[in-house]
Design a protein that fits this description.
Elements: E1 3-7, E2 10-12, E3 18-25, E4 33-39, E5 46-51, E6 57-59, E7 67-72, E8 77-82, E9 91-99, E10 106-109, E11 113-117
Parallel strand pairs: 2-11
Antiparallel strand pairs: 1-3, 3-8, 4-5, 4-9, 5-6, 7-8, 9-10, 9-11
Amino acid sequence: QVQLVESGGGLVQPGGSLKLSCAASGSIFRMYTMAWYRQAPGQQRELVAAITNARNTNYADSVKGRFTISRDNAKSTVYLQMNSLKPEDTAVYYCKAVGPEPYTYVEVWGQGTLVTVSS
């Protein structure tokens, strides 16, 4: 079973950048598709970005061109580089592992990290 721990959240001004990290342990990281979700107050949790072991990626339309997801299998870590942040990006960001590829019967969530975009 995979365990996930996110880090890197915090307070940033509009237009600024943050890089989130999600470290995995307990299983073979490369077997899983990794994703970032976010949940703003009063809103449903939504997919932000995902990356397969083959480095295929997909992004929510709202973050395309601003956010980049990447993974380092040697470090069992997935990253989310967030640039040109907007107040509407404020949310708790969650890391999720799905797999093992090509299956999806295992889903594991991290505890979340808060990102606040405000002046």
